[in-house]
Automatic annotation (TrEMBL):
GO terms for biological process: proteolysis. One of its GO terms (molecular function) is metalloexopeptidase activity. PANTHER family: CYSO-CYSTEINE PEPTIDASE. The keyword tRNA processing does not apply. The lineage of its organism: Bacteria, Pseudomonadati, Pseudomonadota, Alphaproteobacteria, Sphingomonadales. The keyword Hydrolase applies. Residues 3-131 form the MPN domain. It comes from Erythrobacter insulae. Keywords: Hydrolase, Metal-binding, Metalloprotease, Protease, Zinc. This is M67 family metallopeptidase.
Length: 131
């Protein structure tokens, strides 16, 4: 499966990751179907934001309520790895909900997309959409 990701969303993820260093940035990926067209940046509320992320639960609740009211779908989640690579870490794997959502991870100047499946994360290809 391939995703289409808005150029503006890719750029915002990169800026958020760089601005948050040395902490992990995080956000909610929004869109329709396999198209990610918006990014809702959120606070990282984890007590140790240099090595972990936790999306602000209030922002997550608002995003799901908006989806139920006809807004954009919650496609998945974004976070950065200030030191490391753009693949799910052991901590990411342990904390994952295994709900089929997309995860975008930025590290070392690269963004990678993953599907959080029942047993593991699968790599997703993506094409940058035109805005």
């Amino acid at each position: 499966m391939s995703l289409e990701v808005s150029r503006a969303v890719i750029e915002r993820m990169e800026r958020a990751a760089i601005a948050a260093q040395p902490e992990e940035a995080c956000a909610i990926l929004l869109g329709q179907g396999n198209c990610i067209s918006a990014l809702l940046e959120t606070r990282n509320v984890h007590p140790d934001p240099r090595t972990h992320f936790e999306i602000d639960p209030h922002a997550l609740i608002r995003a799901f309520k908006a989806e139920r009211s006809g807004g954009l779908q919650v496609i998945g989640y974004f976070h950065s790895h200030p030191s490391g690579d753009p693949s799910p870490s052991a901590t990411d794997r342990a904390m994952a909900a295994h709900d089929g959502k997309v995860w975008a991870i930025f590290a070392g100047g690269t963004i990678a997309f993953w599907r959080d499946n029942k047993d593991n994360f699968d790599t997703l290809s993506y094409a940058m959409g035109t805005d």
